[in-house]
Fold this protein.
Amino acid sequence: MSDTRSLDEIKSDLAERVEQIMTRYPTARSAIMPSLDLAQQEYGSVDELTYRAIAELLDVPEIWVFEVASFYSLYDRSKMGRHHIRLCTNLPCMLRGAEALMQHLQQRLEVEPGETTSDGSFTLSAVECLGACEVAPVLMAHAQYHGDLTVEKLDALLATFAAQPAEEMS
Amino acid sequence: MSEQVLLKNIDNPSAHRIETYEASGGYQGLRTVLRNFAPDEVIEEVKSANLRGRGGAGFPTGLKWSFVPKDSPLPRYLCCNADEGEPGTFKDRILMERDPHQLIEGMIIAAYAIGCRTAYLYIRGEYGLSIEHCQQAIDEAHALGYLGPNILDSEHSLEIHIHKGAGAYICGEETALLESIEGRRGQPKLKPPFPAVAGLYECPTVVNNVETLACLPHLFSRGGEWFASIGPDHSPGPKLFCISGQVKRPGVYELPMGRTLGEMLEDYGGGALTGQFKAGIPGGVSAPMFPRSEFDIKMDFASLAEAGSMLGSAGIIGLDETASIPQVARRVTEFFNHESCGKCTPCREGLTWAAKILRRIEAGRGQRGDVEQLEMLCGGIFGKSFCALGDGAAWALGAALKHFRHEFDALIIPQSKAG
Ligand SMILES: Cc1cc2nc3c(=O)[nH]c(=O)nc-3n(C[C@H](O)[C@H](O)[C@H](O)COP(=O)(O)O)c2cc1C
Ligand code: SF4
Ligand code: FES
């Protein structure tokens, strides 16, 4: 987590790769999204300190970084559970049982969509179409898709996740 | 089965590698272009082949390219739209994961036609494997001299950079996509000026869909005439259809345009999961649905537009007799409401209101006047929104209300006071 790193540490963690990203674009502003992505991969989520570090590395106003971080849903601005389950509930998935799967997840994890379990192990989100409706219903976790879900498959997945620390999953 | 062009190698587990691609004729289209065509002639060939954009609007690709000013001193940009967020659509993902060199070769050809030296490939952030395979394809193409300076010893030079999206459906709209590459919030911009004149970094820019660009290698290795001979005159070329929802065989299918919606759902989708179909959506959830009685509608740009819907992203969604249309309408409206960028009032406020009414109706707590209220809201959003997201939302909801009014009425509490 970036909260264990100081501003200068974050900057030196990211500097070289941010520099590299900037070469792909004619303006520094364009490097904000890839830099946020980089920081999130490094620290798991992004926060005030990350925005400042990125702003300083790119030499752009910090508000530009915050604006982007708050607009796009894939940037996690608060700490997520070790396993973030994004269950698609859009139409093709809904037509193949996503709502029942969501109910099941809510009961098993004892959280509402958008919440994290009290032990910090799981975050549950309802998301829009993941672009994999041919295997609906589908979820994304640790940057991987799991499709053709059933209650049994969900339970098996939860068991695998619970047994393994997040770092080994991705 | 008709000839598979775009999906020819889709089941080959090494189709994403350049050796496999070259062995099956890959990069021959590019060689032909660089050897035999001036940039203008590329545009003319694409025009005469009548390639129309596969991203949603069906805009003629050659015509779009011809709007790029020839005499501008500014750099020109090509941006590939791989944001694929329209519910029911997954064809671009399949192309990028399994056979990405078609897209990379297509981008090199398109960049040559418009005089572009830097191109961006905007891939939605969830598509991890697509990003990985496209980056690998770019690196492989570099190593063999298909990218970089003086491609195949020609004057044409090109770099392709991947820009990773971060979860915003609206960034599929082309001006929002360009804003996003510039490092801003993804909010649509007023047109004109069109991107062809003032797009990315205020420079002339072409935005094309993945499948549109992936058609180009085939169009040039086999000729525009061959391309134009596939399918109906006005909507030619190979085409991918995504079939999902309550069907027995969901998946991506390559077919010429012009088959009927019923054929697609029955013959390719394998029929309804339970009993019979009730309705079908032809082109992603933005495209107005058809009841089964209208399943003889032809799946091409012109026929669908004439019938008051659209081919859109060619995401066909089957709804069988177990589907509740008010529930479908509620979920789709919630999607649009959630993805509304908030820039204009009809879309932002109208959709919030419509979703609220639809939730009440679905729960069996509909008030007299609610359906009329929804119709009024559709009228207030359609044609009055800043971009096509709001229009699509109202259009899709309007069709559900029109064809399945009785299902909504049945959920209204009769003795409730008019809302
Ligand atoms: C709300 C909205 C979302 C869109 N999403 C996409 C998309 O995900 N992919 C795409 O190629 N086009 C999408 N489009 C259409 C693009 O604006 C643009 O027309 C298209 O990328 C042009 O490419 P083409 O000419 O090759 O079809 C969307 C349009 C709107 C209004
Ligand atoms: S119609 Fe909706 S998505 Fe489009 S600009 Fe208006 S608020 Fe944004
Ligand atoms: S609706 Fe769930 S992946 Fe498309």
Chain B touches chain A through 51 residues (CB under 8 Å).
